[in-house]
Amino acid sequence: MADPVIGILGAGKLGSTLARIGVQAGLSIHIGSRHSVADLQWVIDTLAPGAVTMTAEAVVATSDIIILAIPLNRYRDLDPTAFAGKIVLDATNYWAEVDGTKNLISDFNTSSSEVIQAWLPEALVAKAFNHMGYHDLEIEVDRHPAVPRAMAYATDHESIKPQVEAVLARFGFTPFFIGPLRFGLLLEPGSPLFGAAIPESEFAAELAKIYTSPYGQKIIAARGDQIH
Amino acid sequence: MPAKLQFGLDTFGDLAFQEDGTAMSADATLRQVVHEAQLADELGLQMFALGEHHRPEFAISSPEIVLGAIAMVTKQIKLGTAVTVLSSDDPVRVFERFSTLHGLSHGREEIMLGRGSFTESFPLYGYDLQNYDELFTEKIALWQKLLAGGKLNWSGKFTQKLTNTTVYPQLPKGETIATSLAVGGSPESIIRAVYYDIPVVIAIIGGEPTRFRPYVDLYHKAAQQLKKPEHPLGMHAHGIILDDEAEARSVGWQYIRAEMDRIGIDRGWAPMTRDRFEFEIDKGAYYVGTPEQVAQKLAKNMKALDMSRFDLVYGTGGQLIHQREATIRNYATKVVPRVRELIGGEA
């Protein structure tokens, strides 16, 4: 299977970091943001040399797998028709500092990636790259060369799992499937898994006790039960 | 290489601990900070900068008042903030506080703008964090107009309308309030600092400092692209400098780690493992160890990142009085001279 072209939307802390890691892994990286190509190109050439800067529209059109590294509150800027048939890795989180102190987008009954999937009905959305701090994507990975960190993902589309896992592995992580997209709630800010940059076995152990955590208790209180 | 090196201290006014381990009050901590600034001044350090926080573990919410007190008992040290959250403040009042400090200190004041690690000032002062960028853009423009002095005409979306207004005390003719901008890992913040022609101080509080090299490159590149001048670069990092390495590490584990974990709860960081903590000392962002160890590490990182300014955050997490003061003494009398020697060039 030829390597997919990876598109990254967003060139801030996370987008530029993922672009750098992707290029270093030998992947074709296309990146774009709300800035013009002229304004972004020299930034990317400096922070992630080798990644190709283009407009956001061109990134979507030319990439097989698109990573969303934009503020969650900008998701309505994405054109649903352009995403038809594309695999989308949703790395966004509801983050009060960026998205406002009141979360009007997602809640304990609808995880933020389910909101994205609903907005992009014909895209094949997986939640991934959201639970690890952008700095730890490099720091924790590089200082444990022999023990890859687990990168959890969730998706409703069984068919894309091999491709998603291949990409996560190329970025240097052990893919860790946690279930359909609704399970993505377990990876969101507030969860003990949010921020986790740990190996697979430790991740599994944390996941196993999630409902004993205050966050897990809040999920049960809001949904009446664990996520099934 | 940087022409002139500057070494200073930062503190957020972490509540200190008495020798018997009991926590000092905020009041007593404030007086201790003034005392420590006096010590730093006597030992020849060049900058003493205070953070602004609104949380139980920190005593300083009004840094300029503390700096005003320090101004009266010090002679040469610059008196700074690290940082002033301009976006959740009124630039006119900020200007008045700093121009007052300018007078009291014979022009030793310096303001560092930024957002800092915490964001509690936004709801406290009635601002929406979601407007951070817009608030910052508008207020920094007003700040630069205020620095220019004279009669002001201004209207903005988040700020007051000013018509032919002079803000007092005006700065003496030809003088200004030295202004820098604190940044973390956001490329846009670096570019913004270049755009506004303001020197940058990078907070490097985790990971190998050399990982910030791309951001330093971005700073240089942005100056070229935007045709703006470059200013000396600075960084800020946490440290504990004691004669005994094991003791420094143990104090670090007790206090720095505890503070990082407290911050982490708000910021969504995982609790710090012992392994990560040791890594931060051995290879990462913490300057914890003996004076020679810290000097070697600091000289290496300053060279690798083209840094000419370093601000050591001391007293992180509180610490006992003698530990705080030992760090200041070791830094001023042993580390700084040694780093100057290791880096060479014009001191």
Supply the key terms:
heterodimer; A: 228 residues; Rossmann fold; globular; B: alpha/beta; TIM Barrel; 11 strands; 16% strand; NAD(P)-bd_dom_sf (chain A); oxidoreductase activity (chain A)
Query: Mean of the pLDDT scores of chain A?
Result: 96
CATH homology superfamily name of chain B: Luciferase-like domain
Please identify the oligomeric state: heterodimer
Counting DSSP H or I runs of 4 or more residues, the number of helices of chain A is 9
Element order of chain B: H for helix, E for strand = EHEHEHEHHEEEHEHEHHEHEH
Order of strands across the widest beta sheet of chain B?
1-2-3-4-7-8-9-11
Structural class of chain B: alpha/beta
The major pleated sheet of chain B works out as: 8 strands, parallel, barrel
Number of domains of chain B: 1
Helix content of chain B: 40-55%
Q: Mind telling me the CATH class of chain B?
A: Alpha Beta
Shape of chain B: globular
Molecular shape of chain A: globular
Q: What's the architecture of chain A, going by CATH?
A: 3-Layer(aba) Sandwich
Task: Provide a quick synopsis of the model.
Chain A is of the alpha/beta class and 228 residues long. Chain A has helices spanning 13-24, 37-47, 56-62, 96-99, 112-119, 136-142, 161-170, 200-208, 214-223; strands at residues 6-9, 29-32, 52-53, 65-68, 87-90, 124-127, 149-155, 173-179.
